[in-house]
Specification:
The structure is a single chain. With about 200 residues, this protein is of the alpha/beta class. It has a single domain (about 1-205), classed as Rossmann fold, CATH 3.40.50. It is built from 6 helices and 9 strands. Helix 3 (about 115-125) packs antiparallel against helix 4. The two termini are about 25 Å apart. Residues about 1-25 have low confidence and may be disordered.
């Protein structure tokens, strides 16, 4: 079933001429899955989102990757998605991603950094209005509400608890070779000043 599913995905890539054969060059490498990708379209990745953009391969409200077999995925990427889940669900999701990844597969996460947001709040004389969307979500559509907060210590603890190892910070341009235009390197701006808001962590199964 998994082989048939991936074949359909691969054929769609080439039929639309939107993707290079990245991630499929070696069958043993497994697919790369971008969960909650929104408008971001990374060549060679399987795009999953609750909204049916033209580049979305799987439209789903669920984040549990039920379409994929355990031990089948090479890499999972989520940028500013995990915070939309309740803290009760986050624990379970990270464990699910550990099971879905191949041995030595990578989980790559970007989330709003609570510590950074607190620093910005204090530096700007307690301007809660400025950080409220980064903290609580834009809230302009049903899925865009934040239900969890993270700092490096908490997220690292959750990853280790699920069995991940080699937990390190990562930078978008170094890991992807370009600015993806998402929040992994996004900044919020006030006048001439701008502030990073994201915590980027990756971990190996």
């Amino acid at each position: 079933m998994m082989k048939s599913f991936l074949s359909k995905i691969k054929n769609n890539f080439f039929r639309r001429n939107r993707f290079r054969e990245v991630g499929f060059a070696e069958k043993k490498s497994g697919p790369k899955v971008h969960i909650g990708c929104g408008p971001i379209d990374i060549p060679g990745w399987i795009n999953i989102d609750a909204r049916a953009f033209p580049h979305i391969h799987i439209v789903a409200d669920s984040l549990d990757l039920k379409e994929f077999s355990d031990g089948s995925i090479q890499e999972i990427y989520m940028c500013h998605v995990l915070e939309h889940c309740s803290f009760h669900d986050v624990d379970n999701l990270i464990q699910i991603y550990h099971s879905k990844l191949r041995t030595d597969g990578t989980l790559r996460l970007s989330v709003p950094d609570f510590e950074l947001l607190i620093r910005i709040y204090l530096e700007l004389d307690r301007d809660l209005e400025f950080i409220k969307k980064s903290l609580m979500g834009g809230q302009e559509y049903p899925q865009n509400y934040h239900r969890s907060v993270f700092d490096k210590r908490l997220l690292s603890t959750l990853l280790r608890k699920a069995g991940f190892r080699q937990i390190t910070e990562w930078e978008t341009e170094k890991d992807f070779g370009q600015d993806l235009g998402d929040w992994s390197c996004g900044r919020i701006r006030k006048g001439f000043r701008s502030f990073e808001v994201s915590l980027n962590l990756k971990a190996i199964k």
